[in-house]
Every structure is written in structure tokens, then in C-alpha cells.
Design brief:
There is one protein chain. The chain has 77 residues and is mainly alpha-helical. 52% of the residues lie in helices and 0% in strands. It is built from four helices and no strands. It is elongated.
Length: 77
């Protein structure tokens, strides 16, 4: 049967991906001794590029982080 349509879910109506994404970031922040700021996170929900949690975490810890490794861990979480 040929594909007749695609359904894109950009607002989380069908699948809530924001909760899982936030949990991954919260894990990384706590491991580095910080809390993910709720007001900053709220500014990125449903957007792309509004704020970078990784840049912010690097600013907080004061060192460049192993982004690829940390991203793999938060995705797995």
C-alpha cells in the first residue's frame, strides 16, 4: 500500500516529548551541582534555539563540557 499521508506532531499533542527532554536536562544539571531553571526551560518549550541549556550549564560550571557524551546520556535517560 503506498503512503498517502504523513502526520507531523510539532506541538506535543500526540506524543509528549517535552517531559522526557526536561528529565534528561535535569539529570545533567543535578550531576553538575545545579538545577535546571524552570523559567528558562519554559522559554524553550515548543521552540528551537530560544535558549541553550548546554551553553548555560557550561557557563555555570565554568568549563567546556563533553557535549556529545552528555547528550548521549540525557537521551538514554
Amino acid at each position: 500500500m503506498p503512503i498517502r499521508a504523513f502526520l507531523f506532531d510539532f506541538d506535543g499533542l500526540i506524543l509528549d516529548t517535552e517531559t522526557a527532554s526536561r528529565a534528561g536536562w535535569e539529570l545533567l544539571y543535578r550531576e553538575h551541582g545545579h538545577e535546571l531553571p524552570a523559567e528558562k526551560w519554559a522559554s524553550v518549550v515548543g521552540t528551537t534555539g530560544a535558549w541553550s541549556p548546554m551553553d548555560h550549564l557550561e557557563d555555570l560550571v565554568g568549563v567546556e563540557l563533553e557535549r556529545e557524551t552528555l547528550n548521549e546520556r540525557r537521551y538514554a535517560h
